[in-house]
Design a protein that fits this description.
Length: 458
């Protein structure tokens, strides 16, 4: 650092001999490392303390009013880390030892050796600047730590507090000292973390309030997306049936039949929406499924009837291979409908616009397992979807959420089954839902309890 850039250290010279004091002030004042303040008596120096406290002091041992060591004690009471050099013309063997015991950093005898005195003072000035910078850094650090929402405390192995912000000290004094434990204070949630290194121990009360709130909001947003996605399913057939009736002439002989079909489908979809509302009644909370034997064929027939206008509008044919016998699966009827509705609707959307496109549904009982297949002719997944079809928010559909397949897989899992997707590039997607065969075996405890209580399963 250039000499002109050096911040001067404030130096008190207290010397009762006028000639010595004036010469020291003149010579040392020429050096920019020092900001010299000279005094003839200790009382003058003490009066200047409040306005301009010293970082260094050059004190005569013998002074009027009090000796230099007593003055040093008074200076230290105000400025604990002041660095002082004691000078005297009456040196003896005990004086240097006494000076150092009282906190002086050096002891020089008169007549003064100016080169030595300058070296000693410059060394003390460098240390004074270093101490000043450290104090400023420590002050800024203390202010910064005080702004943290967390509680911070540094202690030693014996439990003595070495440093703490106000929150850390408060929590320490309130005896919140169990690492890993959560505590609530003033509407804020903290968890305590403890780190030890050598004989130092850091206690960190981490404020989880904002993180928990962000997590809760993220859960709300996720649930809202799921709800928005699922509520579109019953709305689609309701809208299409109403549009179809609006487009028909009431005098048309088919109008009565279409009205009856629309009435039935609309009531079914209203029931579906009510069931959805119940499922999302508690945000972020999985409501238990009521597992029991479900007639898979009846569920498929109902959802195909609901989606018939949607498929017709998309110019897609819905096909269901006939069942030889009734097939029952261990499932929740509402969840199974929701799952298959999503898959069939996805198939119709993928197949739309393809000549003579068809979405086929097959139901097969395979021993202890029931397989429901939904196969479309939509050309298969794009490569980015085929690589990870259950990735949230990954979609190529305009206005899509990328949550439908994820919801389907979760519903299958909760019913004790699984969803397998096979994308055949250029042909279509085969979705297979595998469930346990119905008949009472393998029923989940939550489903059994729900039925025993006589609660409805839809």
């Amino acid at each position: 650092m250039e000499e002109s850039e050096v911040q001067p250290a404030r130096l008190y010279i207290v010397e009762d001999d006028d000639r010595t004091r004036e010469e020291l002030a003149r010579i040392l004042g020429r050096h920019r490392e020092f900001e010299v303040h000279s005094f003839a008596a200790p009382s003058e120096a003490l009066r200047a303390l409040d306005e301009a406290p010293p970082e260094m002091a050059l004190l005569d041992l013998r002074l009027p009013e009090m000796d230099g060591l007593s003055l040093l004690g008074r200076l230290q009471a105000k400025v604990p880390d002041v660095m002082a050099i004691i000078m005297t013309g009456y040196g003896d063997a005990a004086s240097p030892r006494m000076a150092r015991e009282r906190g002086a950093v050096d002891f020089v005898e008169k007549p003064l050796d100016l080169p030595y005195l300058l070296v000693s003072l410059r060394q003390q000035a460098r240390e004074a600047r270093l101490r000043k910078n450290l104090r400023a850094s420590a002050d800024l650090f203390t202010r910064l730590v005080e702004l943290l929402p967390d509680g911070i405390l540094m202690g030693d192995a014996a439990g003595r507090v070495l440093f703490a912000n106000s929150l850390g000290r408060t929590l320490w004094e309130e005896d919140f000292r169990e690492p890993g434990a959560r505590l609530t204070r003033g509407g804020r949630v903290f968890v305590l973390e403890r780190y030890a290194s050598g004989d130092r121990v850091l206690w960190h009360w981490v404020d989880l309030t904002q993180a928990l709130e962000m997590e809760r909001l993220a859960g709300y947003r996720e649930m809202a997306r799921l709800l928005a996605h699922e509520i579109r399913n019953p709305l689609t057939p309701m809208r299409l049936w109403i549009q179809e009736l609006s487009a028909m002439n009431p005098a048309d002989p088919e109008y009565v039949r279409a009205s009856a079909d629309a009435h039935r489908v609309l009531l079914q979809q209203v029931d579906r929406m009510a069931a959805l509302a119940e499922r999302f009644r508690a945000l972020g909370q999985e409501l238990p499924l009521a597992l029991g034997p479900v007639d898979v064929g009846a569920v498929v027939a109902e959802l195909l009837a609901a989606l018939l206008p949607f498929a017709a509008q998309s110019r897609v044919r819905l096909s269901c291979e006939p069942l030889r016998n009734a097939v029952k699966a261990e499932a929740d009827e509402g969840a199974l409908y929701q799952l298959l509705f999503n898959l069939v609707r996805n198939g119709v959307e993928a197949t739309a616009g393809r000549p003579q496109g068809t979405v086929t549904v097959r139901v097969n009982g395979e021993g202890s397992q029931v397989a429901v297949e939904v196969e479309d002719q939509g050309g298969g997944f794009p490569p980015e979807i085929a690589a990870a079809p259950f990735t949230p928010y990954l979609t190529t559909k305009e206005g899509g959420t990328g949550l439908g397949l994820l919801v389907c897989r979760e519903l299958a899992r909760r019913m004790g089954g699984e969803l397998i997707l096979q994308s055949r590039q250029g042909t279509g997607v085969l979705a297979r839902v595998l469930l346990r065969a119905g008949g009472g075996e393998g029923v989940s405890e939550e489903g059994r309890v729900k039925r025993e209580e006589g609660k409805p399963t839809r």
